[in-house]
Amino acid sequence: MSSRERILARLRQAAVGDSPRVPQAVSSDRVWPAPDKADWLDALCQNLRDNHAEVLLTDQQTWMADLLARLQKYNVSRLLCGNHDTAARLQQYIQSQSDDIDTQRVTTDIEKEVIFQQVDAGFSVASAALAETGSLVIETGPQEPRTVSLVPPLNIILVRQSQLQADFSAWAASTSVPDPMPTNLLLISGPSKTADIQQTLAYGAHGPKSLIVVMLTDA
Fold first, then answer.
1. Which CATH architecture has domain 33-193+201-216?
2. Could you tell me whether strands 135-140 and 184-188 are parallel, antiparallel, or unpaired per DSSP bridges?
């Protein structure tokens, strides 16, 4: 019997009622202690900075002005945003304060050449932040296209302190399944990086070269 015939025989056997074997979880003695809730913000910020991200601590009243100052510092001339209320308010604010930054919303007819060659920064809104790993959770879809956070060289993500969770397990346990389901679930912990060449970690090899996290604190 050839390898192909053996594979087909197993598939036919499974189709008539045999339950497939489910691999058991591998136990490990290594436990990652989750930080106390009071330390979640410090842990998140430190993990993000360790991964070469810039953290901008601000509040609900001043975050747009603070972000505009960062955009001017990075010489951003075109900012790409999603299709939600936060992006609309940011677009309106920037247009009222600066003539040097073109803020554009993602549309279905936007040309790929514009996204890949003419956009300096992308603005996204996270649905959660994980203190243990310094990760930001982005639920992508029509309102939050994944190209906004994966393509432009400068990635900007807004998140609120109230959305902090200890780790991924805690977030998954406290979150209901969204309706409709997101097209992708992104976990972002810093700029793009790779270690493909000589096992040397390099940042900005593909995708965003810089990450700014705009953290709206409760204070």
1. 3-Layer(aba) Sandwich (3.40)
2. antiparallel
